[in-house]
Specification:
about 120 residues, about 70% helix, about 0% strand
Amino acid sequence: MIVEGESNRAGTDLSATIELAIARGDLTAAVAMATQMLASGTRNVWLLNLAAFGHEQAGRLADARKLLEEALVIDPRDPLIHISLGAVLRAEGRIDEAVAQLTQTIPIGAHVGALWLERAFAFEG
């Protein structure tokens, strides 16, 4: 089930447990719980981004990209998703697409996107 426009946390006991795991620095547990919530049909930008982070860290870039693209369907104006997707695209070596993704954050007011753009160009050797 996709919850249109719901870009924040899932609002469940499990999401509170996920936040505690993140606060403890246990990203492995947080990602596992986010993945569990996604498997149950819960869909929101926060969970999709967290699960995508887990895939990215494990080297499953295509899986991470798919979740981030789904998150953009839910909330195309979430700058963090654009930044995360830009980072995944960069990791895949898809520089032009990464730059395009990061550029989309600038009009939304996410100046962090501009910093990521500078990093992307710095890595272009």
